[in-house]
Write a structure and sequence with these properties.
six-stranded mixed sheet, Glutaredoxin, 171 residues, 6 strands, 18% strand, 37% helix, globular, alpha/beta
């Protein structure tokens, strides 16, 4: 686990513990296009929550295979303070992947915070510190995080759930 040195790796999303309150997940499945700064604002508003940020793309088979586990995680731990956020990274210049991503989310009954990152690949790669999806960040209530990149996600969501459960037990 790393301390929150946000300016180097995760400058906006890393401010989980900054300010604000959690937003309850809507029953309707939606996909909202956002800029990186808007995503950071959303995450900052989740102060005091354990936040699981799943970075995925419609074209990414491992992402889609593991995605139902994010939905289950939200359902299982929401009452304890966990908030799940899905971030789709498909080409913002092409509406077809956005439509496909929304169809996928609806099929998964992903009634959680779903955003479509409206940024060029170079920007999200540098901001998230990844080469591509899948990637999951699990933040504790204080903003410390554990990063699960593509190599770790091959192990499935088991370790992600263990990390989230551990963070939920920390007060």
């Amino acid at each position: 686990m790393r301390n929150c040195i946000w300016l180097s790796l995760f400058p906006l999303l890393g401010l989980v513990a900054a300010t604000g309150q959690a937003q309850p997940a809507a029953a309707e499945v939606t996909l909202k296009p956002v800029k990186y700064s808007e995503l950071g604002d959303m995450i900052r508003n989740l102060k005091g929550k354990v936040v699981v940020v799943d970075i995925w793309a419609d074209w990414c088979t491992p992402c889609k295979r593991e995605f139902p586990n994010l939905v289950k995680l939200q359902q299982k731990y929401a009452a304890q303070g966990l908030v799940a956020v899905s971030v789709a990274l498909d080409d913002p210049n092409n509406k077809l992947p956005q439509d496909a991503a929304l169809r996928f989310l609806k099929k998964q009954n992903a009634a959680l915070t779903n955003v479509f990152l409206d940024e060029k690949e170079e920007r999200w790669k540098s901001r998230f510190g990844i080469d591509g999806p899948p990637c999951v960040f699990v933040f504790n209530r204080e903003g410390k995080y554990k990063k699960f990149d593509a190599d770790h996600i091959q192990e499935g969501y088991v370790n992600i759930e263990k990390q989230a459960a551990e963070f939920l037990q920390q007060k």
